[in-house]
Amino acid sequence: FEAFAQADSSTTRRFGGTGLGLTISNKLLSLMGSHLQLTSVENQGSTFFFDVLFRAEPGEPINCEVIIGLSRVLIVDDNATNRLIVQNMLNLKAIASDQASNGIEALEKLKRAPIYDLVLMDYHMPYMDGIETIRQIRRTLNYSADQLPIILLGSSADDAYVEAVCHTLSVQQYLIKPIKIQQFFQAIAQIRQPQSLSVPLPDPVVPATPLVGEHTVLIVEDNSVNMMLASAILRSVSPTINLLTAQNGREGVDVFIRSKPDLILMDIQMPVMNGYEATAAIRALDTGLTVPIIALTAGIMKSERERCLNAGMNDYITKPVVKDTIARILHQWLPVLEATAPPEPAQPTPALPMNAHFDEEELRTRVGGDKAFMTELLSEVNDYLASFPAELHHHRARRDWPEVKAVAHKLKGSALNLSFGILATLASEVEQLASAGKDDARIAELESALKAEIELLQTLI
After folding, report:
1. 163-180 tens-digit pLDDT
2. Which of 49, 218, 273, 288 could form a disulfide with 282 if both were Cys (CB 3.0 to 4.6 A apart)?
3. Amino acid 349: pLDDT
4. Model confidence over 19-60: pLDDT tens digits?
C-alpha cells in the first residue's frame, strides 16, 4: 500500500506499473471514512475490499419495471465481461439469452437460431461494428423494427453520428455505458412501447402541401451536397420560394443584412464562423431579433436542442434532412401561409433491394420521389467523391489533423444525406481518430477503404 512499492522489484519483473494504484485508491477511500482491506492466500489469490457508508436517497423506492414479451435475447459484444454482466441482469428477470462476440457471429445466429425478442448490440467491435451489423440485420436479413427490436450500447453520450443513424436504422434505444441496472430494466420494459423510445423520433408529419406567396429563405451551409439537397426540398415544398445561400456563418450574417430573409436554416459546424456565433451576431442586430432561425444539426440529444434554443434559435432540424420535416418548419414559422389543394397522392414506388453501400429507396423517399433531381444530385456528388481521396491523403500526409477531421466530417454528412451507409461509417471513424490526433495504421487502412468504397459507389450511382 506504499507509493511506488511493487511486490516484485527486480529488473526482470513480469508486470509493470508505477505502484500507485492501491495508494491512490486508499486515499480516495480515506476521504469517505474508509480504507482498503486485503485477504490473500498464496497460490490461491487475493481479495481487496472496502466498506463505505452512504446516506439514502430521499423519496419513495423505485419499483422495478414489469417486463413482458421478452423470453430470449441476443447479446452482441466483443467483451466477455460485458456480456456476462448483461446476461446476469437478464437472469434476474428470468430472461434467457444467447451471446455473440462480434457482428459476423451475430448475423449467423440470426440466420439459423430461434427468433429473438430483442438484440442488445455493442457499438465498438472488431471486424464489423454495431452499426454496420444493425444495417445488415435490417437490410440483408430484412428484420423490421417490429420483428426484431434492437438496443444499441455505446460509450459516448455525444456521438451525433450514432444518434442520427439510430433514426435511419430504427434502433429503439441507445444506452450509454456503463449500464445501470434500473436504467437497463426500464429500457427493455419499454421496448414494445413505441411511444416510449429514448431515441427522439421526428416531429409529427405535416402534409407537405405546396406553399404559395413570396417568401425568402436563407440556407447557411458549408457542405455543397447538403446545400443542394435542402434547396431542392424547399423548392418542392414551395415552388415560388426565393432561396439565398451562404457557405459559412460570416457570409450568412452579411447576406441577412443585405436581404432580410423571412427564415434562416443555419448549419452548426462551419468554418470562419459557426452557427451559434452567426445566430448571436444576427440577434445582436435590430433587424435580426424576430427572424426565425432553424438549426441544421446531426445531433439529436436533448442537450443539443437546448444549446440551439439557448443560442437564440427558434427550432432545429436533424440531419439527414427529409421533406416532411422541412414542410413542417415552413408551415410553422413562415408568416401567413396559404396552402393549395393537396396534390394527388403519388403512386408507391416499387420496393428496391436494400443495399448496405447505397440505399437508393431511402434516398428516393428523402427527395420526395423526384427522379430527375435525384439523378442531378448523384451527378453533382460524383465529382466531389472523385476528388476526396486525394484531399484526405494530402492532409493526412501533412499530419494536419484538424483538416483531416473537417474533410471527414463533411464526407460523413454528405454520405448520411445520400444514404451511403458504409461510406458514412468509414468517414465517422476517420473523424474520431483525427479528433484524437492519432497517426496510426488504422487511418491508412481507412484511407484505402474509403477509396475502394468511393470507387464502388461511383459504379452504383
Report:
1. 667 777 888 888 888 888
2. 288
3. 34
4. 788 888 999 999 999 999 999 999 999 999 999 998 877 766
Whether cis (ω within 30° of 0) applies to the bond prior to 178 is yes
pLDDT (average), residues 377-393: 83
* DSSP states along 326-366: HHHHHHHHSSS-EEPPPPPPPPPPPPPPP-SS--HHHHHHH
> Residues 196-202: contacts with CB within 8 Å, 24+ apart?
197/172, 197/173, 198/172, 198/173, 198/174, 199/163, 199/166, 199/167, 199/171, 199/172, 199/173, 199/174, 199/300, 200/300, 200/302, 201/167, 202/167, 202/318, 202/322, 202/324, 202/325
CB 245 within 8 A of CB 219: yes
Q: Virtual CA dihedral for 116, 355, 101, 425, nearest 10 degrees?
A: -130
Structure letter (DSSP) for residue 287 = G
Instruction: Choose between 403 and 210: higher pLDDT.
Output: 403
Query: Is the CB of residue 435 less than 8 Å from the CB of residue 409?
Result: no
> Model-level pTM greater than 0.70?
no
